[in-house]
Design goal:
Two copies of one chain form a homodimer.
Chain A (H helix, E strand, L loop, with lengths): L1 E4 H7 L2 H16 L3 E2 L4 E5 L4 E10 L4 E10 L10 E9 L5 E6 L3 H18 L6 E5 L3 H13 L6 E5 L3 H13 L3 E4 L3 H7 L2 E4 L18 E4 L12 H6 L2 E4 L2 H7 L15 E3 H6 L12 E4 L4 H21 L1
Parallel strand pairs in A: 1-7, 8-9, 8-11, 9-10, 11-12, 12-15, 13-14, 13-15
Antiparallel strand pairs in A: 2-4, 3-4, 4-5, 5-6, 6-7
Helix pairs in contact in A: 2-3, 2-10, 3-4, 3-10
Pfam families (chains A, B): OCD_Mu_crystall
Organism (chains A, B): Sulfitobacter delicatus
Protein name (chains A, B): Ornithine cyclodeaminase
Chain lengths: 321, 321
Amino acid sequence: MIDLNKSQIQDCFDLQTAARAIENAYIASAEGRVQAPPVTYLGFEDANGDCHVKTGHVQGTEGFVIKVATGFYDNPAKGLPSSNGLNLMFSATTGAPLAILRDEGWLTDMRTGLGGAIASRALGVDGFKGVLIVGTGLQCRFQARCLQALIPERKLSFTICGRDAAKAETACAELQGDGLSANTATDLEAATRAAQVVITTTPAKMPLIQREWVTPGTHITAVGADSPGKQELATDLVAAADLLVCDLAAQSLHHGEFARAEAEGRRADEVIALGHILSGAHPGRADNKQITIADLTGLAVQDAAISLAVLEARNTEHSSN
Amino acid sequence: MIDLNKSQIQDCFDLQTAARAIENAYIASAEGRVQAPPVTYLGFEDANGDCHVKTGHVQGTEGFVIKVATGFYDNPAKGLPSSNGLNLMFSATTGAPLAILRDEGWLTDMRTGLGGAIASRALGVDGFKGVLIVGTGLQCRFQARCLQALIPERKLSFTICGRDAAKAETACAELQGDGLSANTATDLEAATRAAQVVITTTPAKMPLIQREWVTPGTHITAVGADSPGKQELATDLVAAADLLVCDLAAQSLHHGEFARAEAEGRRADEVIALGHILSGAHPGRADNKQITIADLTGLAVQDAAISLAVLEARNTEHSSN
């Protein structure tokens, strides 16, 4: 059984391998060729903590994943990170344990970054360069780095906007340090109007992005809303969009950005699975005037895919050594 | 993070520590002081395999468990065991991974053995000695060894009965090798009539034990029925019993021995949780004439309890070295 800690995972990680695996997982998910049972939840009220267990398998791949993610929100006071977790891989042909990836949540952050980047690349207008990232946390970094890595032929121009200007400056400086083109903005309306692609990464419970700010041709990727009550996009913006895309309709309509869309007259069957766009089964953006929105809530099969990609990259590295 | 393989787990395993932990888990479960979310299931049709993921926590204990159990039934043809699995422990106060117990299913067999033994000890007539075990597989061994270990002051007399007389002889010889008193029987009716405690451990789909064979004072522990359609005890035997005990009523009534009892006029609220008997909240057996039945389908909190017991025993061993 392979046992890798976070830095070992990072050492052998290959972003392009992982991106391809996650694209395949989205397509398989859209086509029903996956297993993704309901998420298991445990709550620890006394310790202000919780645990989610996700399991997933892409049919035809060699392994399935059991991902454990914990959040214990009093940990920082003890000098510990609030998030932790690991991915366990098992063989889908013998049931034997294959690997424990003690990533402390890093693979989840990375698959979320890659998922957003895959959606932004697929749905942004041809040749887009101007990308606004709303929010200054971990996903600000992951979304920017992953998107630029998936579009190496074109230098993107990132604008970072958050409630805390100092945090935006810090994130911007980090991205510049990685060689990305980045600046900050304090006027969210102006920044939204100027952007071709908007990526929202916040835990907002009130809509941040208003309908009238979004100009024709804009694509929005929303990765922040991951539980009921969170909402980054104005409901009338969702209602007016030309194309609604999601990773899993059941999740987006339950606790994602599209949870309120049905009340505004959108039908659930109008929401297109990202996998159908990636496979070409749906044409995606029709022209450079459409407003498109992708809402990603996260799939267990992304966890399975990225975990297998780690093992694949590790094997390649080993055999080339 | 502690990482123990099967033999390391067996080396530090302390049966009495584990039995106490499991008793506490039964009591906590009966009193509602546990978390045990629905079991997650994955199926792998092409490989003739499946996977169950159970999660559990006994409130107030330091860790929760995520147990993965796989069964791939074509493995023996490849020279591999059909069952595999592991228990993962996480801190209930910080969410950090505590241990991976790569037990290959041994801890599940042991907690099933201990659970049955705890029930048999609690519900058998005072001073019982004659124990019939029906079935000659792994649980035949675990039930006998655990029950004798929990009643060290009294030499029990085990009778092993199974469809395959040669397998019964093998099991019997193994138990004798462990210093237990054991013999075999081929006439199940006579053996049942003679026994004070009957332990059924088979995957039978037709009732094995008939009502008229069971004499007053007999206690029956059924551990075999673990999925819908399995049944070891005649429905009219269950209907006529003086006391019905289970680990979890929802499971026993869904896919255990009591699944058909309601149709025979037994009420679900007549089924007493084993934990209430262990705690003294329910008096258990009233006299030496009652026929009592315990149906055990297995609890995730047993897995949590036995895993913590392994860590406790290991710590004790380490500190005494």
